[in-house]
């Protein structure tokens, strides 16, 4: 059952807009069934997924603070199209909390030892390779004006692609056909960049940095490296081809982290590859029009940024006006509309979309502070900081003791730190960290950390 967890999360289509997105995806009923089956097979594991008293207190504290924030915000907003309303916001909050609990419970009962850990990661990476071949490569052909592949791309998009409500991104049958940009099954290109860069790139980087024999090509160590590095290069390539600022920035940050963590012999190879890549991009920028367009339009001279700028300014002002409790889930859009500079609203997207269906959060990191306030964000960041410190301590101990499978666990902890850094970078833009793949990976890293601490008696 462990092998099904990550591959299922690729199918991200939602079948309703009335509940939290994760609860109306294909993954939700399948994960619920897998959880029940696993508990049926191993009844003794039931006790492991009963939350502690501290967890109940934290969840209760979170809900009370959000109820209070939503109630106070409702006094200002009333019934507005810019909010989801108190009742719907509460329904959404419970849906997200159920997702967090199920993700933790699934990892707890299905990933319990070294072999299951490797199966969880290997099945995810194999799923990623299949996803690239049957979804991303055809979308790439669409962007290269291969018209014969369009019916196939539109068909699988109709079955599995997640859409935003009220947007015209999909009028051509799919996002890729309409916009000539890669998105996988995600609603936009930026979310594909997040999926590849935050969920999958860190773990394969950790494997490469620690030089593990992950794929088990017996007596073919060079082939191991070729496959691992080839997968990294493929992910980096798709980050570029997604044609989004998020993907390009993720690529740069990930490449720097890969270099800094690598050993000396790998650093030499990376320097050579880096020089070749930079030279190729520079030549392509001046002489190959598609490459020029990608970097010019999405990095050096990105257009249509007025809504992002205005929304970010509004989020900062929203947080500064409600620093303690925040404005509550579902009410952030109302205050963005209140504080957004008027000079940034004279554009078609604002006038035709945001004014009528609500202003989305376009900088999630600031959005978390504006929505939840310091009373929730400070404890959350404190708990995350403690987890990071524990990971760094474990990495140090693994290098010293070199216990059984120490390279595997060292690679996992390096991947965890890389993931946190890339989440921080992506949160400057948009990233939905409460979706299934992000939560499953986070709790996987956390669980392996706890298991290793127990094994090493830290």
Automatic annotation (TrEMBL):
It is a multi-pass membrane protein. The chain crosses the membrane at residues 26-43, 55-74, 86-107, 119-141, 189-210, 231-261, 267-288, 309-337, 366-389, 410-435. The keyword Transmembrane applies. Residues 232-339 form the O-antigen ligase-related domain. Keywords: Membrane, Transmembrane, Transmembrane helix. InterPro entries: O-antigen_ligase-rel_domated (IPR007016). It is found in: Membrane. One of its GO terms (cellular component) is membrane. This is O-antigen ligase-related domain-containing protein. It comes from Leuconostoc litchii. The lineage of its organism: Bacteria, Bacillati, Bacillota, Bacilli, Lactobacillales.
């Amino acid at each position: 059952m462990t092998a099904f967890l990550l591959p299922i999360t690729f199918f991200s289509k939602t079948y309703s807009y009335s509940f939290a997105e994760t609860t109306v995806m294909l993954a939700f009923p399948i994960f619920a069934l897998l959880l029940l089956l696993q508990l049926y097979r191993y009844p003794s594991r039931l006790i492991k997924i009963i939350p502690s008293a501290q967890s109940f207190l934290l969840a209760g504290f979170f809900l009370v603070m959000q109820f209070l924030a939503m109630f106070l915000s409702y006094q200002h907003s009333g019934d507005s199209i810019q909010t989801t309303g108190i009742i719907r916001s509460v329904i959404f909050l419970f849906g997200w909390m159920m997702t967090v609990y199920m993700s933790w419970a699934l990892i707890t009962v299905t990933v319990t030892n070294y072999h299951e850990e490797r199966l969880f990661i290997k099945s995810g990476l194999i799923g990623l390779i299949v996803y690239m071949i049957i979804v991303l490569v055809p979308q790439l052909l669409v962007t290269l004006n291969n018209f014969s592949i369009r019916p196939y791309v539109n068909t699988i998009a109709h079955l599995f692609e997640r859409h935003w409500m009220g947007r015209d991104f999909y009028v051509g049958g799919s996002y890729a056909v309409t916009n000539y940009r890669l998105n996988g099954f995600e609603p936009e290109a930026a979310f594909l960049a997040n999926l590849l860069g935050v969920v999958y790139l860190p773990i394969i980087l950790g494997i490469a940095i620690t030089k593990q024999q992950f794929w088990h090509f017996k007596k073919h160590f060079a082939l191991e490296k070729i496959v691992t590095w080839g997968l990294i290069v493929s992910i980096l390539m798709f980050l570029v081809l997604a044609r989004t600022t998020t993907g390009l920035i993720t690529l740069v940050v990930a490449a720097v982290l890969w270099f800094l963590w690598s050993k000396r012999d790998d650093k030499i190879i990376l320097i050579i590859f880096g020089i070749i890549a930079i030279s190729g991009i520079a030549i392509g920028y001046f002489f190959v029009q598609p490459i020029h367009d990608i970097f010019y339009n999405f990095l050096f001279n990105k257009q249509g940024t007025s809504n992002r700028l205005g929304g970010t300014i509004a989020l900062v002002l929203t947080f500064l006006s409600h620093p303690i409790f925040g404005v509550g889930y579902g009410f952030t859009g109302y205050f963005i509309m209140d504080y957004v500079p008027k000079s940034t609203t004279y554009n078609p997207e604002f006038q035709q979309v945001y004014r009528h269906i609500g202003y989305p959060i376009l900088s999630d990191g600031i959005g978390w502070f504006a929505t939840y306030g310091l009373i929730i964000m400070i404890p959350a960041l404190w708990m995350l900081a403690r987890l990071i410190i524990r990971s760094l301590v474990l990495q140090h101990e693994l290098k010293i003791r070199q216990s059984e499978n120490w390279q595997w666990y060292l690679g996992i902890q390096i991947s965890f730190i890389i993931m946190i850094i890339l989440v921080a970078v992506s949160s400057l833009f948009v990233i939905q960290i409460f979706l299934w793949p992000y939560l499953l990976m986070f709790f996987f890293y956390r669980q392996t950390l706890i298991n290793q601490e127990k094994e090493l008696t830290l």
